[in-house]
Write the structure tokens for this entry.
Amino acid sequence: MSRIVTYSPSHTLVPTYECFNRCSYCNFRRDLGTDGWLSLEKAKEILTVLQGSEITEILILSGEVHPLAANRELWFRHIYNLGELALNMGFYPHTNAGVLTFAEMEKLKNVNLSMGIMLEQMTVTLLNTVHRQAPSKVPSLRLEQLQWAGELAIPFTTGLLLGIGETECDRLVTLETIATIHQRWGHIQEVILQPYNPGKREQWQNNPFDLQKLPALVRQAREILPPDIVIQIPPNLVPDPLFLLDCLAAGARDLGGIGLIDEVNPDYLHLHPDKLKEFLAIYGWELKPRLPVYK
């Protein structure tokens, strides 16, 4: 078995933090009307500084605008323009902007090497708890995104959020659902197993996911998912490095996008890739950069 672990040298552009969803565990969103949009001029300044660096992936990560909102078309056009800008400046865009229409996904394919959305969990019970005020977190809507990405042949990332009220059975069902879709379309590159960790901005403030359960879940995921789907573990959310090593031994092979800040979990900073590389080398693992597209 390969001892290579990959990561994507990445920088995140946030078009807007405003989001019409209100997930109770979220540390990313801002209320509507309280946050401006990242201008193309400012984005170009940021990308100009990054040119010539090790950064290859530009993650365009946005709060969601309601599908019927008056500014939906402007929001989508802005996300498209950011992708086009990054692509023209020599970077590889990867967009995660929540639930999109088929037509929007088809257009974004022109300016993105890959795209993604977290499936999180397939259970509808979370609509009564952490997703009670999050209309786009209906599992069927997010599952539809994976199906459309397959029809459009978009290299895709998805994943599970762990410890938000789901059961162990729920996790396996979600993994099996992802596996079934990939077996039809062959487009899912990686599945993120993201443990919930409480942050300072959220409403929920529940206990973090029990990391002792993570290596076993990685092993189960490796058995359920097709072998060409890579399992990703965010290293900044696994503060005990021994658990990270256990996850690698269980079958995880990617550490995701690593940049200056994790916008979704801003209270949990990434180690510099050089530090991660040194640590992993001690235990016989080789850390290598990758592009947003695996094939």
User: Anything to note?
Assistant: The chain has a mean pLDDT of 96. The first strand starts at residue 4 and ends at 13.
